Amino acid sequence: MIVAAIIVAAGHGARAGGPIPKQWQPLAGRRVIDWTLARFQTHPRINRLVLVLHPDNLPDWPQIPGVEAVAGGATRSASVRNGLEHLAQSDVTHVLIHDVARPCTAPGTIDAVLDALEHYDAVAPALPVTDALWHGQAGRVTGTQDRAGLYRAQTPQGFDLAAILAAHRGHPAPAADDVEIARAAGLDVVIVPGDETNLKITHPGDFARAEAHLWGRMDIRIGNGYDVHRFGPGDHVMLCGVAVPHERGLQGHSDADVGLHALTDAIYGALAEGDIGRHFPPSDPQWKGSESHIFLRHAVALAAEKKFNISNLDLTLVCERPKIGPHAAAMQAVVAEITGLAPERISVKATTSERLGFTGREEGIAAIATAALIKP
Ligand code: MG
What percent of the chain has pLDDT over 70? Predict the structure, then answer.
């Protein structure tokens, strides 16, 4: 089974309010679209990810590795069709079709659909209706509706790719969803249990419900790092990967980059993974004279391996001299390059210690760092 997920994000979603379509609106620190993509990017059984965007949004979409952006059509059905046609000549055997407005889909819901696709050509998650149903008119109840046999449909809806592609090609008219198109083509659609948290952002109040769920499930870690290196002979100091001219250098086993060491230890700290010395023992001669970006890259990779996103890094260098200010932007850029974070998530600042203590006597430089890591 080779599985592609198609995320349909070409609509304009006017009912959710706000100045921009709902998929681009902020939600729990990211955008709706980022949360929805992450659900499928991180799922181990999904091989390809196709994002169907409004043609107006396509030029602005930053190419993200592993996300294939495709232009949508005039209707939801036409957008899905474009996503399916994009996969037509591939080795993909099954497809999940998902609304971008459902950012809280649990991995278990995706698994339930995929498990059923092992045996059936069309599968959709749904929840039985439990509330009483009424007919109403002008604010008055005019009748009741038996809820037996009624379901609330969710996505992702899963299909055999060849079967749903043929169904779409034979059904050019708009449809409510892909289940309608599948049934029109004679496919049997199997219902698997949906999830109450798999809500669809439709009205303004849905943002708050989705945020409560996403914040509540997030794993947030904070780590600190502290490092000191002593001055010795030299003509520059390495600070955050930038060679800053100075009449002395910093001494250490590696390049003595006190800034990168503190940042690295902050990330290890957030992960409860010890410190640089544990991962790169000073007793091991292979790390002698190392460039310290190696350590920071290792910590960043370890965070990614444990499925944490680094939210931000904050570093304070403590020294009387050299002056850090003129180099802070260059240091921020280097740390951004090493970590893959946006520069606005990296803070590099400095303070003196008012000529007090070892930093005040210019015997060395100290650095203190904080890292915030989030597992969505
Ligand atoms: Mg150090």
Answer: 99
Report pLDDT for 16: 63
Is pLDDT above 70 for 324? yes
Alpha carbon of 257 to ligand 1 centroid (Å) = 7
Cα-to-centroid distance, 249 and ligand 1 (Å): 14
Name which of 134, 146, 150, 154 is nearest 196 in CA terms. Answer: 154
pLDDT band at 15 (very low <50, low <70, confident <90, very high): low
- Whole-number Å distance, alpha carbon 214 to ligand 1 midpoint, is 37
Compute the Cα dihedral for 339, 299, 283, 237 and give only its sign.
positive
pLDDT at 154: 98
* Å from CA of 194 to ligand 1 middle: 51
How close is the Cα of 227 to the center of ligand 1, in Å? 5
Q: The tokens of 196 are what?
A: 């109450």
Judge if pTM exceeds 0.90. no
Mean pLDDT of the chain: 94
Which of 177-207 are b and which e, b meaning 16 or more Cβ less than 10 Å from the residue's Cβ? bbbbbbeebebebeebebeebbbbbeeeebb
Q: Are strands 219-232 and 364-375 parallel, antiparallel or unpaired?
A: antiparallel
Distance 269 CA to ligand 1 centre (A): 15
Determine the distance separating the centroid of ligand 1 and the alpha carbon of 296, expressed in angstroms: 12
